[in-house]
Amino acid sequence: MDFSNNIVQVQDIPAIEEVTFRPLEDNYLLAVRIAFGINFLLFGAALTAGFVFITKLQIPWLMYVAGGLFAGLSLLIWVGNNLNYRYSGYALRQKDVLYRSGWFVHKTNVLPINRIQHISVQSGPIERRFGLASVSIFTAGGSSADFTIKGITDKTANQVKDWLSELIKTGTDEA
Amino acid sequence: MKHDTPDFSVPQRQSAAAIVILIAKSGVQIAKSLWPILLVTLLRSKKGSSPDKYLYIVIGFAALSVGYAIIRFLFYRYYIQNNSLVIQTGWLQKKTLSIPLQSIQAVHLEQNLWQQAFGVSKVTFDSAGTEKVEAKMEAINVYTAEQLKQVLLQYKITTDTAEGRDAARPPVQYNLTIGDLLKLSLSANHLEAFLILFVLSINILDDLRKAFEFDGWGWMESIFGDMKDNMVALFSVVILLVAVVSVGFSVIRVFIKYYDFKMDSGGHQWRVSFGLFNRQQRIIPIPKIQLFSWHANYVRRKINFWMLDLKTLGDEKVQPKQRLKIPLTGFQSAVNIAASYQQSPVFDPAQGAGIEPAYWQRRTLMVSLPVTIFVAAFAAVWLQWQALWLLALLPVWALQNFMRYQNFKWFANHEGVQLHKGLWGREYKLLVWKKIQQVSYAQSPYQRRHQLATLQFTTAAGAVTLPYLPLEVCRRMVNGVLYTVESANEKWM
């Protein structure tokens, strides 16, 4: 019977704090800013139209409050997007995938490869314009993705998907 | 009566009673949604007026339902072929559902009053997928249903045993007596029962007004209006009435739901049956359990009555009310049953590790304080300076946060993590590492400054969160758990 039970040294266990995260593509920040700009213009136009065409809303204090809130929120989202871009990153290890994100609360997710059910690659019109895509990784249980690595090139996204798919297939065959 | 064993390799129909049940189901649905219109229409037609057009609509709708039920019955076939359960349905839009037998985790038989009257069972299946119920058969002869269940589960037992998964597990045998049911109903959430009754009463009063032009509210006002000069008597009557009705309603609810509750183990699964009118038989495959927890509110904790809450795969798609909760008559029962899920004994919270005190301090500062200020400011519009009294909420909430912090204890070893938490009630939660799907940790700016982190282990049926741990502890846990999950490559289900 082939059986081994070797001692594992604590220092030999891979440490998450030593992982070097790969940053997102430079173009991604530009894509996020363009998406923000479009939303900003749309909401700004809707707000302005509301105050111009609906006379009941033409109350000075209400206009100041709404304008102030809109400006404040927009500034917060702009700063948040920049900070989030700077912190976000991903890493691929032999046995798991890591993704970190968040501008206020920093969050690091680790997903063991032997738990992945399926992977999908997607890209929106702005992402496609910059040759970017996102990879969503799904595990069992929930219907939504466990995490989505955004802001990587279309080529990288497909490479990650193919690499993970191959690993899952190998793992399933072995099992 | 002798029964022939059915041959499931040949396409089978449901019992003929299925037509009646399908029609009845449609009828009940129609009656539920249209009963005020039906009543008014019938009453009006009695007065000699010409039959109302509504009646034709209802009759037409009912005829359609009957036709639909017959078509559903005639074109429904099921059989077992190539180790799969095949279900064929549909007339114009044909559908063939094929469920591999190895993925069938559980077979449930259910009998409501209709099904009991016709001697048939409703059969549903759980598969390894995330759908709550993949397929169902409305009415199968009870004997045939039992045979089908045995055939399907026998396959699972055979394959599981071949894979060595049917490890020796402690046997579980457990049932609830009438006394237990009384304890359970008296310690139930009566406020919830009252609210349900209250909403139902409003609906009924509204429907009565529409149907008979009966002013239920006016009638109640006339009764209580006579007593308005004596406020003490009025309050006493109202409180007594609410208490009696709520407790009575709770007792009835509990007896209807949990009557003749039985639970026993069959190696790799538990069999649970319960219910007075709607008799249910559920199979819980132990490998499908992702998280194991039991909890009690303050009253139940004092009388040592706990509710077992098993989070199984796909639970997130099931309504919370439909999830199976198992009443336990004692803490030891929970501990005994927990041995089926994990080998390690349940920890003593007094010996467990705690979390950092920053948990309750930050919660008070960042959540309780802003909420208190907002509530007081909002109330000041009506109460003016009197609203300042609401600031007294802050120390109350702070105390609650402190108690939550004090009661939060955890313990981790090579097999998994155990949690103990609660404010007035208590909850125990167990998670074995092999069930983990994802590990994550988060840090707010405050936590980053103070080298703290909130750790979360996600399973296929919920998550376990350890808030405000020292960052070093959090990292060690993440590294150790990932090593366990990734190196062992154990089956998580």
Written overview of the protein:
The complex is a heterodimer of chains A (175) and B (493). Chain A has 2 domains: 26-84; 89-174, PH-domain like (Roll). In chain A, 47% of the residues lie in helices and 23% in strands. Chain A contains 4 helices and 7 strands; from the N terminus they run βααββββαββα. In chain A, β2 (89-92) and β3 form a beta hairpin. Chain A is elongated. By secondary structure, chain B is an alpha+beta fold. In chain B, 46% of the residues lie in helices and 25% in strands. Chain B is built from 14 helices and 19 strands. Chain B has helices at 17-46, 53-74, 113-118, 142-162, 178-186, 190-212, 216-225, 231-258, 298-302, 331-338, 358-383, 393-407, 445-449, 471-488, and strands spanning 77-81, 84-89, 95-100, 104-111, 120-127, 135-141, 173-175, 262-265, 269-274, 279-285, 289-296, 306-312, 325-328, 409-412, 416-421, 426-432, 436-443, 452-459, 462-470. Chain B has a 7-stranded antiparallel β-sheet with strand order 6-5-4-10-9-8-7. In chain B, β9 and β10 (279-285) form a beta hairpin. The longest helix of chain B is centred in the first third of the chain and has 30 residues, at 17-46. In chain B, 27% of the residues are buried. Mean pLDDT of chain B is 82; it is low at 129-134. Chain A binds chain B through residues 8, 13-17, 95-96, 102, 104-115, 139-143, 146-147, 171, 175, and chain B through 130, 290, 313-314, 316-317, 436-445, 448, 458-461, 475, 478-480, 482-483, 485-487, 489, 491-493. β4 (106-112) of chain A pairs antiparallel with β17 of chain B.
* Largest sheet, strands/sense/barrel of chain B: 7 strands, antiparallel
Strand content of chain B: 15-25%
Q: How many strands, which pairing sense, and closed or not: the largest β-sheet of chain A?
A: 4 strands, antiparallel
Unreliable runs of chain B = 129-134
Q: From N to C, what is the helix and strand string of chain A?
A: EHHEEEEHEEH
Total DSSP E strands of chain B:
19
Binned, the helix content of chain B reads 40-55%
Which of globular, elongated, flat, extended, rod-shaped describes the shape of chain A?
A: elongated
Number of domains of chain A: 2
Low-confidence stretches of chain A: none
Give the N-to-C terminal Cα separation of chain A: 19 Å
Number of helices of chain A: 4
How confident overall, as mean pLDDT of chain A?
88
